[in-house]
Amino acid sequence: MMNEYKSLAVQYLAGNVLVATPTAPVPVTFDSPAINVMTDLREIHAAVITPDTTMEIANTYMMQRGVRTLLVMHEDDSLAGIITATDILGEKPMRFIQERGVKHNEILVRDIMTPLDMLEAIPLEEVMHARVGNIVASLRESGRLHALAIDDNTVGLSRICGIFSWTQIEKQLGMTIQPTNAAHSFAEIESVLITN
User: Fold this and answer.
1) pLDDT in tens, 52-70
2) Angle at the Cα of 115 from the Cα atoms of 54 and 124, rounded to 5 degrees
3) Which helix H or strand E contains 8, and what residues bound it?
4) pTM here?
5) Yes or no: is domain 27-195 CATH 3.10.580.10?
6) pLDDT digits (tens, 9 = 90+) for 156-170
7) Which listed residue, 11, 68, 78, 152, has the most CB atoms within 10 A of its CB?
């Protein structure tokens, strides 16, 4: 089999030789295609965890992976819900401790995650025609820091194919966005940014 391949030409190195560095990412604006700020799960493996994992392990795993959201998966690889850093570090654990009388280290992911039946997802078809400003407006309106994208056109079951993260969008825009529910339209978001 290897006989069908011939070796490539080489050149000897001399003088000043530099090493390539990655090109800077294309700057993102509110008018950029929304797909530019989506973590595409068709290209990158999602950070996942099981519902029976302790909250503390989930938090450690988020820090190790450098993410703020984990998809919570059943054993059959179907989505159970999501858990975010806000869920873990916010009031949910304290409320759960008070309600159930458990210790902090006994809280499981399923106890504080947002379950599947409380999640919304943006159809991929919508995402393909949307702008970054539309995603920010959608996150503001929902009062969430994350949004899922769903592809209903795959063979068989619907599949979550992307995640939008408020912090990732801010990073790519190079600015902090106020997560107020006051602005809904793209124009309103721009006017909020211009006045700040």
Assistant:
1) 999 999 999 999 999 889 9
2) 120
3) none
4) 0.75
5) yes
6) 678 999 999 999 999
7) 68
